[in-house]
Amino acid sequence: MTTAVIVGAHLGYDLSRVPLGGGGAVASALIAHWAREGTFDLLVLGSGPIPPVDGVRYVRVEWEVPGEPDVPSSLSMRGYASFCVQFSQGVTEHLRRLAAEVDPTSVCVVHNDVSEAPDFAAIRALGYRQIGIFHVDVVDYVSRVYLRGAVRAPRLAWAYRGLERIGGHRYLPLIARLIFGKQEECVRHCDLLVVPSRGMAEVLQRSYPAARGKVRVIPWGALVDPLPPGAGIPDIRARHGIAPHTPVLVTLSRISPEKGQDLLLKALRIWERKEREPLVVFICGAPAFMHGRRYFARLQRLSRGLRRVRVHFPGYVAGAEKRAYLRAADLYVFPSRHESYGLTLAEAMAAGLPVLTTDHRSARDLVRPQFGAVVRPRPRDLYRGLVELLADRGRLREMGERAREFATGLGFGDAARALARLIVALAEWEAAARGFVPDARFPVE
Predict the structure, then answer these.
(1) What value does the mean pLDDT take over residues 254-258?
(2) pLDDT by residue (tens digit) across 13-49?
(3) What are the chain's domains?
């Protein structure tokens, strides 16, 4: 049987309590699916204390950042860089030892992270086949969020390669080397690169000539966790005393600058000045990663002074609580500055909600005018989208039903099976040498 080694720095944590983002959630769901299907022999390498799925072979890679929390999403920038280095070295060493026990050419290593991943060149030299999953193109993220599009991702990647040729990259800060260097190495040494959207595939291939021919687009679909039997779903409207006719908006994501909650709050301030109708808004999520806490304080300041618009910050929600907020909402708002896919966007559609989203990498793949609107990531554009969508509540309910119908075709199981086929083909070297026949449902480039 084919062996797949799944490497994920954000694996090994209780995701119902710890906010680690969509990458960890996707990897955990993939592992659970493959374990049920018995697709191949699984070995999982993570950094957390608990196996992502009961019964799966799991190895915890030990790490420690003195004086800082033991959860990656709560580390400082310097602490996270140290965590990345420790995890990378630990995984590389484990795979080196494993190569002495098995035939590495029959094993496929699936990297669920890039900056935190092991030494791609060393893993390749050992004989392993490799697949890199890009949940985020971090160079594109830096371009769009930190540089606000002033320098595009292809230019940044080109500049790094120029520094690398003359050895200048060695003088960059560690966090910059992890962002630019690891992504370059992933593209160079992995056999395949998996991305969740066509927009992401396009920018990756423009940035890295070595990526051409390696990229496979596999949208993750709607990832909806089943509730345990007998789980009750709270009534959020009753809990907060919300009148039946009052529109409710919900957004679900970690509290972090790229998620754009500040853009939504600025749009709501425009609403407060121009519209008479009251709104209730739930911004669900917890501060996470390097800039989360400072950004959360900014969001709280922006929400002060609003009167007709009531803003609540419920914190991190999961399971029945998450389902309750989606059930209470009339409209789901997804204001991200940068997004590779949009797991909660697809989840909201599956819950029967119309959506208002910014024009991120996957927006045009997921959202249709029949059940949503796509606008530029600017407060005034979000405000106009709110005015248009909230003008007719009856139409809004119809749009929600169309969103639910569309989401029935976004099966996560299809994505898991498509990726499993690539893993098996890569692990069987002769099949890999003959090349891949892409699944028609998942365009290659």
Answers:
(1) 90
(2) 998 888 888 899 999 999 999 999 998 999 999 999 9
(3) 3-221+412-434 (3.40.50.2000), 236-407 (3.40.50.2000)
User: Do the bridges between strand 279-284 and strand 309-315 make them parallel or antiparallel, or are there none, so unpaired?
Assistant: parallel
Helix (H, G, I), strand (E, B) or coil at 281: strand
Q: What does the alpha-carbon distance between residue 4 and residue 45 come to, in Å, rounded to a whole number?
A: 11
Distance CA 311, CA 295 (A): 16
Give the residue from 130, 134, 114 showing the smallest Cα distance to 122.
Answer: 130
What tokens appear for 440 in the block? Answer: 């028609």
Distances (CA, A) of 182 to 21, 65, 115, 120, 390: 20, 21, 5, 8, 44
The pLDDT tens digits of the residues spanning 156-214 come to: 999 999 999 999 999 999 889 989 999 999 999 999 999 999 999 999 999 999 999 99
User: In this model, does residue 72 exceed pLDDT 70?
Assistant: yes
| Contact (CB, 8 A) for 356 and 332 | yes
3-state secondary structure of 415: helix
- Average pLDDT rounded to a whole number, residues 207-224: 93
* Contact indicator for 174, 80 with CB cutoff of 8 Å: no
- φ, ψ dihedrals at 314, nearest 5°: -70, -10
> Quick one: average pLDDT of 98-108?
91
| CA 182/CA 332 separation, integer angstroms | 35
Q: What is the DSSP string of 359-402?
A: --TTHHHH--TTTEEEE-SSHHHHHHHHHHHHT-HHHHHHHHHH
Q: With left for phi above 0 and alpha for psi between -120 and 50, is residue 225 left, alpha or beta?
A: beta
Q: Which amino acid is at 208?
A: Y
Write out pLDDT tens, residues 327-342.
Answer: 999 999 999 998 889 8
Question: Hey, what amino acid is at 131?
Answer: I
Find residue 295's DSSP bridge partners: none
Q: Residues of 198-212 as b/e, b for ≥16 C-beta within 10 angstroms?
A: bbbbebbbbbbeebe
Between CA 280 and CA 37 the distance in angstroms is 43
Quote the CA–CA distance of 315 and 285 in Å, as a whole number: 5
Q: Which of 28-37, 112-121, 224-233, 346-355 has the lowest mean pLDDT?
A: 224-233
> Residue 106: pLDDT above 70?
yes
Distance CA 5, CA 7 (A): 6
Q: Is 170 exposed, middle or buried (0-12, 13-18, 19+ CB in 10 A)?
A: exposed
